[in-house]
Design goal:
The structure is a single chain. It is built from 9 helices and no strands. It is an all-alpha fold and about 190 residues long.
Amino acid sequence: MNYEAAEKYALSRIHDELPETYYYHRLSHTQDVMKAVRYIAEGEQVSSEELDLLKAATVFHDLGFVETYADHEPVGARIAGEMLPGFGYSSSQVEKVKALILATALPYKPQNRLEMIIRDADLDYLGREDYLLIAHQLKLEWLHLGIIKSMKEWYQLQYQFLSNHNFYTDTARRHRQSGKENHIAQLRELLGL
């Protein structure tokens, strides 16, 4: 496996091909998820091969946005399936990476430990101090795309999403759950609930 070459390919496409109006789904998000994957994987004590699969899935997990906004995960999995063999990934490794990419789709429920790790990493910011800044980027993106129409709608969606969200790994629950609960309380107060 030549992960470095696969990473360079995927990050280059994300940087070059995603619209500038994707304020959240951009290179910085992928890099943020890469850091979270490493952090959670270390806490969950995964093997080096498992970490390599997680890292490959992470750099490809939002690459489908270069072709479509809705249901981008299957597109990202397809691109990974087409490209990873050229970077020395076996067919078994490619299938595992594709499954991890598909596990980032909402509302999919993770089926194994690696799927839990990538799901928690993708939404790691929900329990961090920089939640408001990152959520603001998503809000701008959705306003631009017409997914939301008002601030009230945004806050209601965020409240509902955070209230129904679960972290899956012990590492994420230990380090992010209390922060997420604080954000839920802030949203509840903002909405007058």
